[in-house]
């Protein structure tokens, strides 16, 4: 007697085959069930470990049709032992996992404000790739004295959060009182303890033993240049030389790194 298949599923309702992709280190995929997106850092028997742009790790099973690659469903498989070894995922200057070919997102209504042009240039150099992917625009204030009126005009809200990075934000300072006055549910003001953003660059990266102390009442940048024998008549050129020594987050002090990451998280929440 002829045997007939019991599968009566119409062909158009059957799952279509999907490509199998080796889970090579550095491959960026998304786990659709959780929305977790990251780069492969490890693939072991039955599991794959991903790392997102913030350094968070998640382990997922290697299940058929379990991941999205550039929006397409794929099945991750263990890479062959003959595959060339890779040192790990590419990184941006901020230490985040780079996303090759990623397009800049349309700018959000939210913004990050920093005090001055030098601050903005440093943030752009280290976090620029991350900010473009997240659609975050950075602007500079030129000082914090007008911050209350600027925040009032901006009118932060749930869909337009405002983050502000302030120099020399220490308890009791003028900057601290201004920050306290404008902080709200949708406006976050954070800062580093340095008098100027120059100090947030590690001295070793600039080739000095430490940033000199400048007497109170004296222009800080001018005093630093004089103490170090740098041309004090053109602090802008000196800053460009300092900025050229910054290659990544490793050249910056932790007190600045944490605050900028905090602002990016807040504005993109």
From TrEMBL:
User: In its UniProt entry, what is this protein called?
Assistant: DUF3097 domain-containing protein
Coiled-coil region list: none
Report the superkingdom from the record: Bacteria
- Show where the DUF3097 domain sits: 20-79, 111-268
Pfam families assigned to the protein according to its UniProt record, in alphabetical order = DUF3097_C, DUF3097_N
